[in-house]
Amino acid sequence: SPPCAYENKGTVHARYTRYFGTTGDASPSLSHYALTHYKQWEKSIEEWQRPILQDSSLPSWYKSALFNELYFVADGGTVWTEIMEDVDISGGIRSEDGGLPAQPTVIKEYGRFAYLEGQEYRMYNTYDVHFYASFALIMLWPKLALSLQYDIAGSVIQQDLTERLHLMSGQYSPIKTKNVVPHDIGDPDDEPWVRVNAYLIHDTAHWKDLNLKFVLQVYRDFHLTQDRQYLQDMWPICQAVMESELKFDLDGDGLIENSGYADQTYDGWIVTGPSAYCGGMWVASLCVMCKMARLLDSEELYRHYKDLLDRGSAAFEKLLWNGKYYNYDSSGRDLSNSVMSDQCAGHWFLRASGLGDGEFQIQSALKSVFDLNVMSFAGGQMGAVNGMRPEGVPDRSSVQSDEVWIGVVYGLAATMIHEGMQEEGMRTAEGCYRTVWEKLGMAFQTPEAYCEKNIYRSLAYMRPLSIWAMQLALNTSQKDQTTTA
Question: C-alpha dihedral over 350, 352, 353, 356, to 10 degrees?
Fold first, then answer.
């Protein structure tokens, strides 16, 4: 990709220029290198894939999905740039209790990385969606995953008070509020990293999931990389976003509430009061904050988060658990007790981070999701519908509740595998693969969503990279079995 000019930032060069220069002979030099090294690359790819391809316990469709869904890493409008000497990821902002270095080592060494939410949804590093897709990066290109996290952290502590109109509310509000995670790092037609939050539908400063997804990813990344410097750098940012999140606990019971509009990644599905999705991620985030506080010898902060965790988890169980699964929300509306396929997202990340035990409630909730959202939907052949009524018909209250989100399904399948439900997890994920890659003929353009009647939305999308969470779950379960043996 050619260099691109950024306002007041000089010229930004593509990553390959580090090795092949910035002059006119870079392209032939790069081509020559590829032609003289491709055999070694092919050999390395075969060595990487061989253990999975030769594993007879894994079905063929899964092997195809696992490797082929990676098309989006390269085909998702991806940019990989060198960081220039005058760029400060925090915009020059430093806080008294610890700030990010202007140019963290991982960014200096590995550059900046960005990929689109989708080829139709043109925003870079859309963070509520990257939460799912991030498993592919942290497992295969961990330095790029950490680089992306540093960029997000740098934008957290910045603000842009320019007012703009948000389409759903019809109201004006600032482009970027301080100490909250941005929705995205910009539009490819504008200036990514310089101007963030290209998303115009809602004011995402009031979304309930973005801050939590940052905290959960920080600990997951540390668990998989054991990069202590990364943990130390991210700790003040985690505290800042959790403090911002705490204002959503309006009644002081230790559990956040949703606002009565679509204030999370399901941006067309209204949620009111404490909810299974955001509430579960809040409880999980408090759990990892306690863990990080202990790792960093901050006993006072540990007690602070442990108090919130104890009260918040008690409120979560009291307000949302119905004996079989967690209700969609606690508003008492007619559809409050819908079964959400993504209700265990917070627990999923705990398990992926080596935390969380198998709990009766989680296993019961996953069984309810499998019985209703999977097996009672489309004959059990199309994955898990986002929302299902307990009587066995899809929740049609919104444009998103009766959709199947492929990336969510792969994450759900991973959660099932973590909880010892491998057969159910594989059956759940297989429905999506068969539907997208075989029935609908959308190979290498996996959409965000489809409905039972084969209506699809947003071809070539980031979220299905979450299939690598299934591989992490399989790896973890195999280790557990080896340890037990």
Answer: 40
- Are residues 344 and 325 in contact, defined by beta-carbon separation less than 8 angstroms? no
CA distances from 323 to 329, 333, 353, 434 (A): 15, 18, 27, 33
Contact 410, 470 (CB under 8 A): yes
Six-digit token string for 431: 């429905």
Please check whether residue 222 lies inside any domain of the structure: yes
Count of CB atoms within 10 A of residue 111's CB? 21
Q: How far apart are CA 137 and CA 147, in angstroms?
A: 11
What's phi and psi for 48, nearest 5 deg? Answer: -65, -40
* Domain containing residue 249: CATH number: 1.50.10.10
Query: What is the Cβ-side half-sphere exposure of residue 288, based on CA atoms within 13 angstroms?
Result: 33
CA distance 57 to 470: 14
In a domain, 81, yes or no: yes
Is 171 buried (19+), middle (13-18) or exposed (0-12) by CB count in 10 A?
exposed
Judged by DSSP in three states, 154 sits in helix
Is the pLDDT at 332 greater than 80, yes or no? yes
Q: Residue 455: inside a domain, yes or no? A: yes
Contact between 209 and 278 under an 8 Å Cβ cutoff? The reply is: yes
For 379-393, how does the pLDDT look when each residue is reduced to its tens digit (9 = 90+)? 999 999 999 999 999
Identify the helix (H) or strand (E) that includes residue 80: strand 79-81
Sort 334 into a burial class: Cβ within 10 Å, 0-12 / 13-18 / 19+.
exposed
Q: Which of 5, 11, 1, 227 is nearest to 113 (CA)?
A: 1
Q: Does residue 49 sit within a domain?
A: no
Instruction: Please write the tens of the pLDDT for every residue from 357-372.
Output: 878 999 999 999 999 9
Instruction: Specify the number of domains making up the chain.
Output: 1
Residue found by looking up tokens 């505290």 in the block: 239
The DSSP result for 181-241, as a single string, is --S-S--TTS-TTTS-----SS-GGG-SSHHHHHHHHHHHHHHHH--HHHHHHHHHHHHHH
| Tens digits of residue pLDDT in 79-113 | 999 998 888 999 888 766 567 889 999 999 999 99
Cβ contacts of 289 within 8 Å, gap of 6 or more: 215, 238, 239, 242, 301, 305, 309
Tell me which amino acid residue 333 is: R
Domain residues for 90?
Answer: 59-484
Taking alpha carbons only, the member of 300, 239, 308, 303 closest to residue 279 is: 308
**CA dihedral sign of residues 59, 444, 400, 392:** negative
